[in-house]
Amino acid sequence: MNNELSRRKFLQTGALATGGLITSGSIQLEAHPAFQAIKKTAPGDRLRFGIIGIGMQGSGLLSGALSLPNVECAGAADLYDGRHTLAKEITGNPGLFTTRRYQDLLERKDIDCIIAAVPDHWHKKVVVDACNAGKDIYCEKPMSHSIADGFEMVEAAKRNNRIVQIGSQRTSSTLCEKARELYSSGAIGEVEHVELSLGRNDPTGAWQYPPPADLSPSTLDWDTWLGTAPKTPFNALHFARWRCWKEYGTGVGGDLMVHLISGMLYTLGWNEIPRSAQSLGGIFRWKDGRNMPDLHMVLFDFHGVPVYVRLGLGTESTELARFYGPKGYLDLQEFGLQLSPQPGIDLSPSYYAYGFPQAMRDDYFKKWKEENAPKAGKEPLFDQTSWRGHDYDDMVPHLHNFFEAVKSRIPVFQDAVFGNNAAIACHMANESYFRNKQVFWDEATKSLKV
After folding, report:
1. Rounded to an integer, what distance in angstroms lies between the CA atom of residue 295 and that of residue 54?
2. Proportion of the chain in helix, strand, coil states, percent, rounded to 5
3. What are the structural domain ranges in the chain?
4. Rg (Cα) of the chain, in Å, rounded?
5. First and final C-alpha spacing in the chain
6. pLDDT category of residue 25 using cuts at 50, 70 and 90
7. Structural contact between residues 50 and 75, judged by C-beta atoms closer than 8 angstroms
8. What is the DSSP letter of 261?
9. Given CB 3.0 to 4.6 Å as the disulfide criterion, which of 24, 93, 163, 215 pairs with 136?
10. Helix (H) or strand (E) holding 59
């Protein structure tokens, strides 16, 4: 989400290593094509979209979409009436068509595509209905609320030949693209393991959002909002803070982990479901009635490569994706990327030789230096290079790629299959947490086993 600016800062660092100097250089990446397109796109070929859900994320998506050229909002749907007013305010169109029924947008022939930002438990129905109505759709992450839901969504996209893009925007980032380029060129060698982490330390970061002051059964269609969730009396906190409950959301897994996983898959050129997941965690700080953990740690097995994920809502920490290989490591953060090469050789005689008798040790040191030590003034340099770039969580480039795909019919990278694979990783993490045991992916049945 775009409100992470205060949570993350890119740090450029340098260090000294035994036997060689690490030098640090910073490179500014060029602007993303989405911003270049604002000047280059010719008039005409205008797209009209409808938006379903104009809450915290949806309002940002609506503003972001309207910042792009030749794009127009033709209608907005939300079950809460206050967001009809908000949509009109954002578009600057007091006459904008608004409705509680999202189906009204799908039935309109003058709407080319849909943007959907609804609670997770509504993703499947909205996406399947949109595809069946012949509409391309941008759906917020995580793609699905359950494993079964995801495969139904993939099938609907395929059956109707629709563009479906999932809203984990890092796959449209120039920083992630640079990380992908570096990895594919062998900058760190074959990845051996990955660490992904993110931490927050404030009520808003833990989803303790303030409900709208006028929220009531008269301004919100509560029964419809519940959808497939258990029927319960009206609850304003469940509406505003739905991410806290598994009945509507997918917790830190679907809200945060899916970004980390999607960025990792894109960087490494993978598009797959992990073999297994083992979780630990709990509700340590935010004991507000939620049933999703506020601390979640997971160890995944991606075709033999261990991937460790830490997500916490109790301590602020820098968001980081670190990729380790035999030639060094890559650090990917919101505004920057750093490559730290490592030579993988001894830069000094082995300290094991201190266990040798004196004469033997002296002979070893002498021979090692004759064969390996650089001449004075010829010590090696190991460049530590940093790239600075545009916020990798900005939604505008991702929306741009979606709209371009709608026009060109060229598939997006983060399509339904990619989105489903990333979402399944998060579902596996949640299942492992709730079952308190390791879970495994069974490709034959497309389900989990323990």
Report:
1. 29
2. 35, 25, 40
3. 2-33+171-344+381-449, 35-170
4. 25
5. 34
6. low
7. yes
8. H
9. 163
10. helix 56-66
User: Does 221 score more than 60 pLDDT?
Assistant: yes
Q: How far is the C-alpha of 159 from the C-alpha of 304, rounded, in Å?
A: 33
- Residue 388 tokens read as 């600075």
Omega of the bond prior to 142 within 30 degrees of 0, cis?
A: yes
pTM: 0.89
CA–CA gap between residue 404 and residue 431 (Å, rounded): 36
**How sure is the predictor about 373, in pLDDT bands with cuts at 50, 70 and 90?**
confident
Distance CA 332, CA 319 (A): 9
Tell me the pLDDT tens digit for each residue of 61-75: 999 999 999 999 999
135: exposed, middle or buried (Cβ count in 10 Å: 0-12, 13-18, 19+): buried
The token pair that represents 25 in the structure block:
């250089």
343 vs 163 pLDDT, higher one: 163
CATH class of this structure's domain 2-33+171-344+381-449: alpha beta
Tell me the Ramachandran region of residue 59: left when phi exceeds 0, alpha when psi lies from -120 to 50, beta otherwise.
Answer: alpha
pLDDT band at 379 (very low <50, low <70, confident <90, very high): confident
Tokens at 314, concatenated: 């109790």
